[in-house]
Write the structure tokens for this entry.
Amino acid sequence: MATLLRKIGLIRLHNRDTEDPKHHHNHRGGGGGQQSASLRGKGGGKSGGHKQQQQQQQQQQHPGGAGDASPGPGKGKSKRAAEVAARDKQPQPAAGAAGAAGAGGPRERAAGARAGPGPAVAAAAAGGSLVPAARQQHCTQVRSRRLMKELQDIARLSDRFISVELVNESLFDWNVKLHQVDKDSVLWQDMKETNTEFILLNLTFPDNFPFSPPFMRVLSPRLENGYVLDGGAICMELLTPRGWSSAYTVEAVMRQFAASLVKGQGRICRKAGKSKKSFSRKEAEATFKSLVKTHEKYGWVTPPVSDG
């Protein structure tokens, strides 16, 4: 009986295993999965430990980071510092130009580039020409005020020593009439004998007057000696840039010229033909430039005090 029961039990176990292969597979698979998982765990542990050991060795060899591909904190900081220093060294555009160029989006910036520099930039570029123009205007104002005052002072002269006429109504071009010289001089006698009422001179004032001297020359009558040279040029140191002073007035210059005429024994030319030849400005300018060069090279002779 017992033997029969054991056989029946074995038959049922056999039938169950053969009828439910899925259960059988899961049972076997479960065991295999646990074994493979444990194996993977052991293998992963070994490989993970090996990788961690390699990383530690690389960190010891390269303290800045684990490798060249991924820079560490030290390399990152130094790189950022280099980038900031490079940006600081780049030239910064002007405030106005940078603001105008940087304002707006790409379309606005492109339109600004096509339009060219703005008014402020153009004005700054033209600054070199604006400054001389302003300086020239200032010099013209100074010259005009000074000459107006000179005219007023000459009009108040009580002895009628000189008189002034403007050439073509120009304030900067004068014809000056010298009415008087020393009455004890031969020149005064010549003027009386030839019925010459005055000696006519022309004065032109440069742009930087009174800081530069006027150009003065004799127009008529034709004179000889008296420091009057070819073309009517006048040899006087105070009429040169070296001898000139802005404190000199036209009246003072004319009185000095009258004295030099007498001192130099000036006479009215009475030679036939030559006396009728008028002085020319071109000849006077050439003569004056030549005498200035000569005197700059050899100096000016200062007369004794007894000679006036």
User: Anything to note?
Assistant: The mean pLDDT is 74.
